[in-house]
Amino acid sequence: MTYAKTAAFTQEQQQLARVAKALAHPARVAIIQFLASKQTCISGDIAAELPLSRTTVFQHLQELKALDLIRGEIEGVTVCYCLNTELLKQVHQQFTGFFIEATAGAACGPDEACGC
Amino acid sequence: MTYAKTAAFTQEQQQLARVAKALAHPARVAIIQFLASKQTCISGDIAAELPLSRTTVFQHLQELKALDLIRGEIEGVTVCYCLNTELLKQVHQQFTGFFIEATAGAACGPDEACGC
DNA sequence: AATCTATGTCGCAAACTTACGACATTTAAT
DNA sequence: ATTAAATGTCGTAAGTTTGCGACATAGATT
């Protein structure tokens, strides 16, 4: 018993957790920022920009691709990776909804704990 | 070499990844939602609400507490857990900034890949 | 004091993640 | 046809996460 018990949670919770997981490594955050900074879709030499081996970067790219957060099209000998901005916008909405729900109540302040 | 090479990324990237990681498990998302749903800060019988053992829930609570996203104060025999809404708001801003940056460019559409 | 209840802590097992080197494949040049 | 460059795939090693049972603590009751 050590598998992730994801099945027992709501689709919403699973979806949010899935995306959060995709962003849960600085390399993947960096990859998304890098792709966003390039107006033109850049090839896999993203690796050259990061302090990681090409293989490792490729692996991170695969994870992002698995969630369809980024796309990759083979163009001859290079690959064109780019952000799926549509999906990212949706995800943004999702996170916003979550955070709004979470920050709605008047719970603990910054320094003191709650007074319940 | 299999440790996380976090040191090589910016503070910003690391911070975002750290918080994302905290949300990267449906149980933790559920815990936050549960705490948010209770106007009064509820004790650790959060476990009763989730399909996980008390020990496991406690562990998830520790992770959230390590990032200060939630607070926990011992009150006699019960514990009062609650959300750090201030921090959550900051985190929300952080994520929003990231997503806006990421969705600013006109990259791939929903179905076709980019045309670069 | 003995007990009950709500917590917290340890240690372990299984699964997942991160990182990489080495090898395979594919397209473009020479 | 060879070779070179850019990718993709495999296998492995080590670290981290997830989940839980068993045991330890600490107030509150009786």
Give a description of the structure:
2 copies of one chain form a homodimer. Chain A has 4 helices and 2 strands, in the order αααββα. With 116 residues, the first copy, chain A, is mostly helical. Chain A has a single domain, classed as Arc Repressor Mutant, subunit A (Orthogonal Bundle). Chain A has a two-stranded antiparallel ribbon. The first copy, chain A, is elongated, with a radius of gyration of 18 Å. Chains A and B meet through helix 1, helix 2, strand 1, strand 2 and helix 4 of A and helix 1, helix 2, strand 1, strand 2 and helix 5 of B. Chain B binds a DNA duplex (30 and 30 nucleotides) through helix 4.
Q: How large a portion of the residues of chain A is in β-strands, by DSSP E? A: 5-15%
CATH topology annotation of chain A:
Arc Repressor Mutant, subunit A
CATH H level of chain A: which superfamily?
Answer: Winged helix-like DNA-binding domain superfamily/Winged helix DNA-binding domain
Number of domains of chain A: 1
Number of helices of chain A: 4
Q: Which blocks of ≥5 consecutive residues of chain A have pLDDT under 50?
A: 1-5, 109-113
- Please provide the ordered H/E string of secondary-structure elements of chain A: HHHEEH
Mean pLDDT rating of chain A? 86
CATH class of chain A: Mainly Alpha
Would you summarize the structure shown here?
The structure is a homodimer of 116-residue chains. Chain A has 116 residues and is mainly alpha-helical.
